C-alpha cells in the first residue's frame, strides 16, 4: 500500500451487504488513487459467494453475483433492495402458468435476460468465471467479479416441516419460509469437489489488502470459506485481512442473518462473529475487525481474542456512508 497506484484490494462478499460495500469501496479508491479518467489505478477483485446459485426454469441463477453486478452497474432496484430497477414480470407469469419454477421466487424479465445469457455461455462450455466476466463486460463495473469456485456448491438447509425432516435449497428456506422455520444445519452440496479457481488464488496471493465485507457470516462468507483450500490460501496471504461486522447492536442490519447464526450456535453480536472468524494470529482469519460505535463496549473482549478493533459507524445508509466505511476499512488495514 501507499505505492502510487496499482494497489490490489480483494474482497470476500455476499449479495446485498457485499454489493453496497463494494460500491463504497469503488468510490473511495477512485478518490484515493485516481487514474485521471474518473476511475482508479487500484484494482478491486470481489470473490463472491455462489452457494445460493441454482438451476431454475432451466437457467443458472446466481443471486449474489447478480446483486453485485446490478448494484455496481447502477441497475439495481435500490428501493426494493434487490433485482433490476424498472423490472416487469411478464415472463414469470407465463412460467407460473406452465407450472415451471418456484412461484414464490419471481424472476423479473430483465433479470431473466441475465440468466439466459449466463446459461448460454455455460452451455457453450465457458466456466462460471468466464461466463461472469462476459456478463460483466457490458456493465463497466470497475470491479472484477469472481465466483468463489467454478464447481457448483449449493447451500442446502435441513429443516423440520410438519414433523418431517426435509432438506431444501437455501433459497427455499430463505425466501419461501422467510427463515421462519429453524434451520437444523447447513449443507454445502458439492463442496467436496470444489476448489478455489486460479483467479481466486491469484487475487488472494497478490492482494495488498483483503477485506471481508459485512455479509452474512454463515451462508455468504461461511460458504466461501468452506471451499476446500480457500481458508488456508487466505491465512497464507501476505495482505492484512480486515473484516467489517454485519451485526450492529445485536441485530442483522438488513436481512435475517440472525437465523443463520442461531443455527450454528453463534450469538448475533459483533463480538461473537469476530470470534467465530477467529484471530489470524491464533489460527483464524482476521487481523482486524470493524465494529459499530454502538458496540464500542465489546472492543476489549475482541482485542483480547487477538483481533485489532476499529470503532466506526457501520450503517451503509447511502453512498456517502458506504464510502466512508470503505475508507475506514482501508485505514484499519494500513495500521
Ligand atoms: P445477501 O447475500 O443478499 O443476503 O447479502 P450479504 O451476504 O452481503 O449479507 C447480508 C447481511 O449484510 C445482512 O444480514 C446484514 O447483516 C449485513 N448488512 C446489510 N446492510 C448492512 C449495513 O448497512 N451495514 C452493515 N454493517 N452490515 C450490513
Ligand atoms: Ca446471498
TrEMBL record:
NCBIfam families linked: F420_cofD (TIGR01819)
Catalytic class of the enzyme: transferase
Lineage per the UniProt record: Bacteria, Bacillati, Actinomycetota, Actinomycetes, Micrococcales
Keywords: Magnesium, Transferase
UniProt xrefs under HAMAP family: CofD
Chain segments annotated as transmembrane: none
Protein name: 2-phospho-L-lactate transferase
GO molecular function: LPPG:FO 2-phospho-L-lactate transferase activity
CDD domains: CofD_like (cd07186)
Pfam families: CofD
EC number annotated for this UniProt entry: 2.7.8.28
Amino acid at each position: 500500500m501507499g505505492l502510487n497506484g496499482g494497489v490490489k484490494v480483494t474482497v470476500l462478499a455476499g449479495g446485498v451487504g457485499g454489493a453496497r460495500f463494494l460500491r463504497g469501496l469503488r468510490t473511495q479508491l477512485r478518490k484515493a488513487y485516481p487514474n485521471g479518467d474518473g476511475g482508479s489505478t487500484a484494482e478491486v477483485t470481489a470473490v463472491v459467494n455462489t452457494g445460493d446459485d441454482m438451476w431454475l426454469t432451466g437457467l443458472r441463477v446466481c443471486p449474489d453475483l447478480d446483486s453485485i453486478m446490478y448494484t455496481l452497474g447502477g441497475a439495481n432496484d435500490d428501493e426494493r433492495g434487490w433485482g433490476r430497477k424498472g423490472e416487469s414480470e411478464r415472463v414469470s407469469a407465463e412460467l407460473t402458468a406452465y407450472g415451471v419454477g418456484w412461484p414464490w421466487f419471481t424472476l423479473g424479465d430483465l433479470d431473466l435476460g441475465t440468466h439466459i445469457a449466463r446459461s448460454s455461455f455455460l452451455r457453450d462450455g465457458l466456466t462460471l468465471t468466464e461466463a461472469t466476466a462476459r456478463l460483466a463486460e457490458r456493465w463497466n463495473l470497475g470491479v472484477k467479479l469472481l465466483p468463489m469456485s467454478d464447481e457448483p456448491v449449493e447451500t442446502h438447509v435441513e429443516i423440520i416441516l410438519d414433523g418431517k425432516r426435509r432438506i431444501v435449497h437455501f433459497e427455499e428456506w430463505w425466501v419461501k419460509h422467510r427463515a421462519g422455520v429453524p434451520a437444523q444445519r447447513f449443507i454445502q452440496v458439492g463442496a467436496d469437489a470444489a476448489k478455489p479457481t486460479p483467479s481466486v488464488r491469484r487475487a488472494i496471493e497478490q492482494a495488498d489488502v483483503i477485506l471481508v465485507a459485512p455479509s452474512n457470516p454463515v451462508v455468504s462468507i461461511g460458504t466461501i470459506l468452506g471451499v476446500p483450500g480457500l481458508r488456508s490460501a487466505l491465512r497464507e496471504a501476505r495482505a492484512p485481512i480486515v473484516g467489517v461486522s454485519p451485526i450492529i447492536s445485536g441485530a442483522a442490519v438488513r436481512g435475517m442473518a440472525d437465523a443463520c447464526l442461531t443455527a450454528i450456535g453463534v450469538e448475533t453480536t459483533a463480538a461473537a462473529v469476530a470470534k467465530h472468524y477467529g484471530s489470524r494470529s491464533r489460527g483464524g482469519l482476521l487481523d482486524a475487525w470493524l465494529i459499530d460505535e454502538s458496540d464500542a463496549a465489546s472492543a476489549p473482549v475482541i482485542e483480547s481474542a487477538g483481533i485489532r478493533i476499529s470503532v466506526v459507524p457501520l450503517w451503509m445508509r447511502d453512498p456517502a456512508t458506504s464510502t466512508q466505511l470503505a475508507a475506514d476499512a482501508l485505514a484499519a488495514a494500513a495500521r
